[in-house]
Amino acid sequence: xxxxxxxxxxxxxxxxxAAAHPVGLTPRASAERxxxxxxxxxxxxxxxxxxxxxxxxLPAAEGPDGASVAAERLDAVxxxxxxSHGASAxxxxxxxxxxxxxxxxxxxxxxxxxxxxxxxxRAHGGSGAGEPAGxxxxxxxGPNGASAVGxxxxxxxxxxxxxxxxxxxxxxxxxxxxxxxxxxNPYGFAAAVARDGRAEFPHAFAERLESADLPLAHVPAxxxxxxxxxxxxxxxxxxxxxxxxxVMPATLLSCAAVATVLAAGTxxxxxxxxxxxxxxxxxxxxxxxEHAGSDVLANTCRLEEAPGGGFTLSGSKWLVGRGATAHxxxxxxxxxxxxxxxxxxxxLGPRELARVRRAAAHPVTGMRGIDFADLVxxxxxxxADAVVGAVGGGLxxxxxxxxxxxxxxxxxxxxxxxTALRTALRFTRSRKAAGAAVAATAHTERDIALAGAExxxxxxxxxxxxxxxQLSPGTFGxxxxxxxxxxxxxxxxxxxxxxxxxxxxxxxADGPGSVVDKAQRDNAVVExxxxxxLGVLRAxxxxxxxxxxxxxxxxxxxxxxxxxxxxxxxxPALDHTALDLAxxxxxxxxxxxxxxxxxxxxxxxxxxxxxxxxxxxxxxTALxxxxxxAADxxxxxxxxxxxxxxxxxxxxxxxxxxxxxxxxWWAHPGRGLYGERxxxxxxxxxxxxxxxxxxxxxxxRRVPAGDLAxxxxxxxxxxxxxxxxxxxxxxxxxxxxxA
Length: 739
Fold this sequence. Notes:
Blueprint lengths: L79 H5 L34 H5 L44 H10 L11 H10 L4 H9 L18 H12 L5 H5 L3 H10 L2 H12 L4 E4 L15 E4 L5 E11 L6 E7 L8 E6 L1 H4 L3 E2 L13 E11 L4 E2 L5 H37 L1 E2 L2 E2 L4 H30 L5 H24 L11 H18 L3 H11 L14 H7 L23 H19 L3 H26 L1 H5 L2 H23 L15 H14 L9 H16 L19
Parallel strand pairs: 1-4
Antiparallel strand pairs: 2-3, 3-7, 4-5, 5-8, 6-7, 9-10
């Protein structure tokens, strides 16, 4: 997913909005209003779903180093016209295939996929109509003999809808795909490694996921999709991508283009992209240009008015995900000499794309088999009704959609880290040294704990962010950058630790080393494919200082904060049009934690977790110091020009994750997370201790063993069940590993 970093979401634009409690202030108990609703009345519910498009997973339209729009104000771009034409998330979908001509004159009539499986099955990743060639038998069995309706091989039936599972769709989809450790499973680890070695597109796997409607998981139900909650979508994508992260760009890549259209396009355009995805088409997202690198404002691809009406496109776009095979494309091109309002987005259908030259795909190190190709335009005709939103509003529209892309890309990070850690756990339990299992040695236990704590920190933040985007899309901008930075950084570190546990087998081209090697290379792609680490940090650095200002209003209530962490609970319809680039200090996680940190710490004390309570207070102090230092550095030209603002932003991201973890524990009274007993805080102790160490620049290996131990216990317990390494239970189809 390539998109410019939203460093332009400037914190100095308060637009008369009252700030809630800043991170640096002492919380006021009076702000805990019991009458507050889960979503503030002034904020539009919804958010934008953004990672999936039928066969394209990670939009690669932005350069691998991220596009920077540093000093430009994107919130100055007029959005009234866009919003007045925005597609409603609740728009009614025609009862049958739409016969209307879409952009480019392409009719989708008769090209929609069969409506089966039933809507209820599709919404939960259920039964498997449409097996790929070489896949399971037509009798509905998975590759290891598991029934497509959700029975786990060698274990109890997977919880289906109505049985109490928090994410039944993820469990059903995993059961459909079968045991990934079985050598003959076409959706397993061995098959993924073999495809990777041949740089082969995962055709059969993609078809299997299409039969379960995974490509529709980011499309609102009102447009024929299966999106209910983004946290549910995140989990469904994770159980597929843990087997092979390449299935994300193979099935979901259209999400960047779709999110942009839903944020700013017309209802007709929204129906067009939804129909394309429903028909198994890929809509590419083309933004980056090689010569411009991370500076998207230096892009030169031009959209010019044509003498007879409409427009023409000239120039090229670089590293477009699925560029060589896409059926349609959203292109952001220059329409004015300078500034962020100098770009316009257009939606090209198959007719226009047929006149575009597609360069050969670039070789890549991770997610092999997915084409990242250049699109070359030479006066390509573009109809006037292909413009998405307002002329001059294309970059703003794309950046709004990218907030969701950043979020959903974390599914690949979490999936690859899950696979690496699970592989390492099983390997260390199967090997012995001096008569004892390697897993039982102090050094191995520590590294398992660190890898587990880093993965859990990324997991809990991603789940929280997924709900945040839907509950309060208008304030989601900062969180979208933070979750991308934290998930990529921490899962990369977790995978390195997991690979180290394999010893010499970690660099062998077969066995466990090959599985972890692929996971590591795929994980690395995600770090830069939509917004670069530098672009993310610039955006966070631009916003962080605003949280040091005194509050003018208290608007964060306990119910608001807890709703962010009520994983799996119903969410309002996703409203893409409410995504906002304004950078006012309204982030619910930061303000909510500032307001309730003392309450959380007191509750931990009551539950017999004084160490966790102490760490929560340390996070509160560290956050206050970080935002204050960021504000001071911004006022000092010498400091502002150096690396300090980005370093503070990096620390701020990690502390933000710590705040989210503390709020997640608080939001589940009486229920243990990560398989712990009710109100258990061992996992929280490990996560906070590791995040504080990272944020302070300390080696996490120096964290006291007592703080780390619960993380090792948690991941060992979850693998033995087996369950996904996530906060609330998601049962997996894996055969039991060595005891």
